[in-house]
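S1.2 Input.
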Amino acid sequence: MKSGDQTSRRKRNIKCWAYIVAGVIAQTIIILLFVMLVMRIRNPKVRLGGVIVENLKVNSSASKPSFTMKLNAQVIVKNTNFGHFKFKNSTFMISYKGNPVGEATIVKARARARSTKKFNVTVSVSSNNKISRNSHQLSADIDSGIINLSSHAKLEGKIFLFKIFKKKKSAEMNCTMDVNTSLRQIQNLTCK
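S1.3 Output.
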């Protein structure tokens, strides 16, 4: 009788250990899936949503061609992480053929977890006394009615995941756009 009790007790112990091992394996798989899917931190994306041209003035004289305008740009920060992205003040730069012609500050803000933050930035753009070596190219662009501009911004900050983990990340924007001087609007806005 004792040997029957021992074998049944032994079977129960083996069954109990099998359930414990299966539970540990299942928890490990769940934790691995959570870490691989939720905890993976990606760089946020920053783009221009739209740009409005105001107060456009062009001087197409061959001796001193120039343009001045005010651009109201909608900046879009897309955060696909499960934690919010808090970024510092940053510089939004507008260039013509590699020469800076306008600059504005993007003020520090926070993009919530798995959401998109939209805000407006106003930039005063002027080529006066900034473009000397490409003046013949600028004169040709003004005569054609299309001025090609590029914009750049880099938002540096941290992703805060569950108020426990912090990871430094940055979002960079490089966009090109054509200013149509006759229609006074932006065309061919593309961002990378």
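S1.4 Remarks. The chain has a mean pLDDT of 91.
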